[in-house]
Amino acid sequence: MRLYSLSVLYKGDPKVHLLKAAYDVSSFNFFQRSSVQEFMTFTSQLIAERSALGSRASVKEQEYLCHVYVRNDGLAGVVIADNEYPQRVCFTLLDKVLDEFSRQVSKMDWPSGSPATISYSALDGYLSKYQVQTPGT
Q: Structural domain of residue 9, as residue ranges?
């Protein structure tokens, strides 16, 4: 059971943009990592774009399960995990991350923010904290 990506996005008008993200692509071949990360960024944006405000969904994409939560204020979170990772845990993580993000980052920064301009450093910590260690890994 693995988490691969945790993203915070803003669903504005007309499109969704990434505010902050953390990735764990260590299980992939070194030469695949950047393309896997690009795929996860693109997929996160696409799923958030296609989700209604105030909705939660789990979408299967290739061998991954993508869990999205879009709040009514336009803040969205996406977790990309493998198929075995518990859905309930993913949504608990998204609730926690989006609540904390909205307290630490001014709402005025969301529409124009980008990973380079938003200072929120907790995503990497959450990604590793919520990684499920299985015997032999």
A: 3-123
**What gap in Å lies between CA 30 and CA 73, rounded to an integer?**
38
The per-residue pLDDT for range 5-58, each reduced to its tens digit, is 999 999 987 789 999 999 999 999 999 999 999 999 999 999 999 999 999 999
Neighbours of 7 (CB within 10 A): 28
Q: How many domains does the chain have?
A: 1
Residue 134 dihedral angles phi and psi, to the nearest 5°: -100, 150
- For the domain that residue 53 is a member of, what is the CATH number? 3.30.450.50
Q: Do the beta carbons of residue 70 and residue 54 sit within 8 Å? A: yes
User: Which single residue is written with the structure tokens 């030469």?
Assistant: 31
12 in a structural domain: yes
**Structural domain contains residue 40:** yes
Please report the sign of the dihedral spanned by the C-alpha atoms of residue 32, residue 59, residue 116, residue 114. positive
